[in-house]
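So, can you check what follows?
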Amino acid sequence: MLPFRPVLERLKRPIPKGGEKMKNKKGFTLIELLVVIAIIGLLSTLAIVSLNTARQKSRDTKRQADARTLQSAIELCINEGGTIPATAATWPGMLADDCGSVKLGSFLSSGNMPIPPAGGTTCTTTGPTGNCYSYCRDAAGTRYLLAAVLEGTSTGGLTTNLGYLASECISVGSAGGDGGLNTAGPFGASKCAANNYFCLGK
């Protein structure tokens, strides 16, 4: 019978109530939970702001790259044909503009005029909407201007007052490149001196 004595002793012990097991376990206080929630909210806000800033910079990088790509095509077209392409009635119509004996579109590898990243549906003259490209050529055909509205601050490019007239410019918004002519001429006057305008040309 001796081997069974420990078993019998355990059976004689009172069974503990369910709540007694939890008496020595501590949980979070309400204040601690609120602090944790506040920290998580702050970190989430900072992450969203950083992400939005990165996306904005990425879109502006594309806008400046598009302007440089189009400038390269124009310069090649001028060297080949001898004249600066005129402004067309629509933005896509610029592809058919000639520089004397060649078309501008033949120097764009994509076969299309560059379109701003999504961010709006119109090419506006008020404020940094970041959704407008423009091309201007003076009436004498001796100089041209390429410009893009940025969301952030422009680095590089022209900063002088070029003074193109509205009638000398063609602009497009981001609505599929459907030739939204901006008759207000956003890149006349001193727009290229503004921090959010990226301009190339002469």
